């Protein structure tokens, strides 16, 4: 078979070379989330079979291990074989008609939620052990017999699939998955975000790839150029290895910056934080020097099971993230959905113009009972870490008042139910609408921090639909109108002593980030893999220079002129 | 059914390895083996139920055993828990 090259979109940087593991059953797993009555016994057997597989695998590992490692494995084995877990899973399959995967996930979440709520840290850590084993069981369920062998061999492979369901994506780890390529998906899809968090190269939109690949074929996933090469020839392989080496060297240099502050040459410091969608991304973010989480997109919790998560499930996810951040800020954004960003399992009204419709905080406030589930979960987490609460798509101060009132109502209820003591976390807002920009003075009296969502802000200020391919030429966050808006927000916030963050794509672009620093932005939050590059840019200029650059950009005639300005002097480093 | 009160004495409490050891031991008895802490009850054959009780050092618990040879097993179990390390 000859070499085949397929173009796609690079969504997670790096180059992976290795044997292909095509994932065939993935779509099936999503489609059959609920099973028919007559399938109940088979589904229960499937779970019990997975338990036997995992237990056998763990026993073999225990035999070849000693000391602390063996101790850990013994605990994990007891969890895998636990009769209580088994009973819960079998019951979910029978009563709820969940497939084995979903039944297992629900049971794990229920128990882990209770463990995570225990006062003693050593007990809370067991929730993580349970998640580890839940993941291992899920892998067994997904891959049947192959899983046993594959886990035993412990080697990695490149996963290729038409698309990867969120529940599978949550199971990936960098040890067994070296790279990812899918035929569908976008840069903001679950898979892409997780791949970036784990630091595995990924390409999406590589259409037609699955028809040409077989298990074990040598494959290159080029997450720099956005290409998948099936069965590469000698030259292609050599080239890939060269660019892989070059990339890793560069990363190694950048990695040296991880422990250093994002400080300009004249001593002005900016905080660099990470945007995450899952608690599991925290480790990757910390390894790249993130000083906290500036944006926790809670929508992903909703995508995992295809239905709105209950309070316990959310609480588990938020506590897991808060604990991993070890006292660093964790900014939880309440659900940001709308007809253009639907939530699985939640009915949205049909709208002619969803971008200007019931979305973000408007949707949440329209359904207070639904909203309160999330507020309660966040409140219960707030005492465990440095949690901040952030509301999206605010356009008038009454919305913030309504959120605050609901939050206090929830706090009171929790206290009455004996789930206190409850601390009200700092509440801030996203600045995305022109209305919020030009009333920032008023909003700053009540909101304790601002975070500018430059993606939506750009679309609303420029009146350009960012999803419309015909409008791409007009969509540009360097437009002076956007810069003026940001400048205004910073001044209004600083006058009231509030800090301003930027959490859109703009913060991840090293050149644009310098503009933001020059405009006085205090914090930049971005995908973890952009942090070190942005830090390098900031450490290369003086604050004075960044400020001068920002003033020139504000005075520029157009987005094109601003870009030219950045090209000419932005990164000249002195 | 027989029962006996014991105190958790090992410093880290019944978590992880100590909990796994107790569960492993309880599973050797074919009958019912349970622990009560205040109002809450757990089977000692389930590490997850046991962990949910969050039994740390100094907690007083009541052990209950039911089945053939319950007396002898209860003695062994109490001794086992009192001699846990770690």
CA(first)-CA(last) distance of chain B: 30 Å
Which protein chains make the most extensive interface, counting residues with beta carbons within 8 Å of the other chain's beta carbons? A-B, 22 and 20 residues
Shape of chain A: globular
Structure class of chain B: alpha+beta
Distance between the termini of chain A: 52 Å
Structural class of chain A: alpha/beta
Please bin the fraction of helical residues of chain B. 25-40%
Spatial strand sequence of the major β-sheet of chain B: 1-4-2-3
Unreliable spans of chain A:
25-31, 145-154
Treating each run of at least 4 consecutive H or I residues as one helix, how many helices of chain A? 25
Tell me about this structure.
The complex is a heterodimer of chains A (574) and B (86). Chain A has 574 residues and is α/β, with parallel strands linked by helices. In chain A, 51% of the residues lie in helices and 14% in strands. Chain A contains 25 helices and 17 strands. Chain A is globular. The relative contact order of chain A is 0.09. Helices cover 35% and strands 27% of the residues of chain B. In chain B, strands 1-4-2-3 form a four-stranded antiparallel β-sheet. In chain B, β2 and β3 form a beta hairpin. The interface between A and B is medium-sized, with 22 and 20 residues.
């Amino acid at each position: 078979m000859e070499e085949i090259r397929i173009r796609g979109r690079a969504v997670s940087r790096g180059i992976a070379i290795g044997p292909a593991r095509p994932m065939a059953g993935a779509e099936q797993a999503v489609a059959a989330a609920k099973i028919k009555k007559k399938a109940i016994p088979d589904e229960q057997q499937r779970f019990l079979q997975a338990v036997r597989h995992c237990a056998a695998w763990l026993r073999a590992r225990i035999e070849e291990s000693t000391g602390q490692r063996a101790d850990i494995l013994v605990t994990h084995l007891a969890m895998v074989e636990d009769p209580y877990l088994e009973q819960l899973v079998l019951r979910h399959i029978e009563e709820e008609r969940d497939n084995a995967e979903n039944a297992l996930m629900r049971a794990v979440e229920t128990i882990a939620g209770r463990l995570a709520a225990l006062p003693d840290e050593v007990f809370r850590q067991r929730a993580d052990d349970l998640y580890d084993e839940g993941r291992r069981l899920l892998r067994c369920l997904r891959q049947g017999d192959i899983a046993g062998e594959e886990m035993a061999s412990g080697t990695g492979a490149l996963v290729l699939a038409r698309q990867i369901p969120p529940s599978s994506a949550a199971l990936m780890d960098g040890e067994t998955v070296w790279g990812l390529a899918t035929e569908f998906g976008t840069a903001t899809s679950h898979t892409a975000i997780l791949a970036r968090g784990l630091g595995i190269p990924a390409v999406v939109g590589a259409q037609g790839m699955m028809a040409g690949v077989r298990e074990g074929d040598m494959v290159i996933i080029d997450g720099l150029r956005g290409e998948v090469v099936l069965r590469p020839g000698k030259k292609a392989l050599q080239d890939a290895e060269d660019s892989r080496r070059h990339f890793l060297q560069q990363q190694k240099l950048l990695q040296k910056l991880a422990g250093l502050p994002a400080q300009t040459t004249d001593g002005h410091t900016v905080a660099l934080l990470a945007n995450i969608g899952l608690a599991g991304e925290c480790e990757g973010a910390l390894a790249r020097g993130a000083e906290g989480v500036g944006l926790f997109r809670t929508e992903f919790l909703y995508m995992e099971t295809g239905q709105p998560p209950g309070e316990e499930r959310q609480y588990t996810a938020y506590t897991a993230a808060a604990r991993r951040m070890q006292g660093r800020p964790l900014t939880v954004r309440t659900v940001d959905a709308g007809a253009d960003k639907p939530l699985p399992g939640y009915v949205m009204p049909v709208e002619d113009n969803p971008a200007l419709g019931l979305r973000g905080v408007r949707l949440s406030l329209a359904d207070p009972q639904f909203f309160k589930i999330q507020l309660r979960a966040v409140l219960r987490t707030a005492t465990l870490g440095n949690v901040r609460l952030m509301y999206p798509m605010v356009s008038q101060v009454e919305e913030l008042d309504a959120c605050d009132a609901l939050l206090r109502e929830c706090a009171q209820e929790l206290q009455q139910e004996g789930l206190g003591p409850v601390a009200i976390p700092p509440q801030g807002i996203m600045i995305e609408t022109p209305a919020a920009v030009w009333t920032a003075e008023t909003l700053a009296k009540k909101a304790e921090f601002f975070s500018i969502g430059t993606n939506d802000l750009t679309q609303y200020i420029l009146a350009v639909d960012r999803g419309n391919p015909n409008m791409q030429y007009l969509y540009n966050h360097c437009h002076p109108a956007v810069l003026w808006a940001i400048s205004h927000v910073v001044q209004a916030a600083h006058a009231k002593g509030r800090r301003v963050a930027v959490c859109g794509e703009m913060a991840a672009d090293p050149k644009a980030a310098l503009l933001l620093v020059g405009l006085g932005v205090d914090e930049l939050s971005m995908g973890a893999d952009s942090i070190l590059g942005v830090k390098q840019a900031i450490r290369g200029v003086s604050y004075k220079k960044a400020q001068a650059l920002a003033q020139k950009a504000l005075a520029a005639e157009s987005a094109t002129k601003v870009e030219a300005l950045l090209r000419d002097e932005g990164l000249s480093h002195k | 059914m027989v029962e006996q009160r014991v105190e958790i004495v090992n410093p880290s409490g019944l978590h992880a390895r100590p909990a796994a050891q107790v569960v492993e031991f309880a599973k050797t008895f074919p009958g019912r083996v349970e622990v009560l802490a205040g109002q809450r009850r757990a089977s000692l054959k389930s590490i997850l139920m046991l962990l949910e009780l969050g039994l740390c050092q100094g907690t007083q618990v009541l052990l209950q055993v039911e089945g053939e040879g319950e007396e002898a097993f209860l003695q062994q179990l109490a001794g086992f828990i009192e001699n846990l390390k770690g």
